[in-house]
Amino acid sequence: MLNVSHVTKKYGKVKACNDISFTVERGECAILLGPNGAGKSTLIKSIIGLLRHEGTITINELNNKSVEAKRIVGYIPEIPALYPNLTVYEHLEFIARAYKLENWKDRAEMLLENFELTDKKKKFGDELSKGMQQKLNLCIGLLPDPDMVLMDEPMIGLDPHAIKQLKAIIEKMRNEGKTMLISTHIIDSVDMLWDKTVILQGGVAKACITKEALENYGRTLEEYFFEVTEGIDSASVKSDKTVNAEDNTTETEDKKDTSDKTEA
Fold first, then answer.
1. How many CA atoms lie within 13 A of 66 on its CB side?
2. pLDDT at 189
3. Residue range(s) defining the domain that contains residue 130
């Protein structure tokens, strides 16, 4: 569904993303995990087509900047971009017209109810609190019911009830075979929701691992994240074991050392 191949994004001499490659298969929920400044938002914006970049990105084998690709992708930015002179409901109506949606009103009402915005339908965008703006941001991105959704730090600013509702929606979308890529720096916010995790640090993809491979490796996502990014634990991924996320196998460096000695 999504193929990111050797993507590099520079701001002057600084590489915000440096030669990043990974794939997300149809129906997978993939996580971009990394600390602040790791390059997650830059990569998401490159995928959705907002930034120029080196390398190639395809969605359903279509160029990510093509109209055909954009029609099947939903985008929820980290910072809500709302129109101050449109009400909550008018924002949804605007999106429905832009996407030429039919029979969208029931879905709009469902989203508004889930995120407790039903009584805010007539409020303007600039009258909403930060949390309410984020809830509307989610409703806007989810209204078209796209085949693939990109979410950039979607849980920032949400209250516990809204987080619970968003997790339920993500789980429902997984069951429906939707494809998702979610960026976050809060590990426990995505626990049990993911199929594949890409760990970014300093603009570099440090690791890409499936849930099955991580379970075989015997680490929690949190433990694995700190092994990769900080080298915590003597059983470091780089010095002791290398987890291959593509075929879910684990190879030890000791085997390589043994073979080298045999050849010598």
1. 12
2. 74
3. 82-145
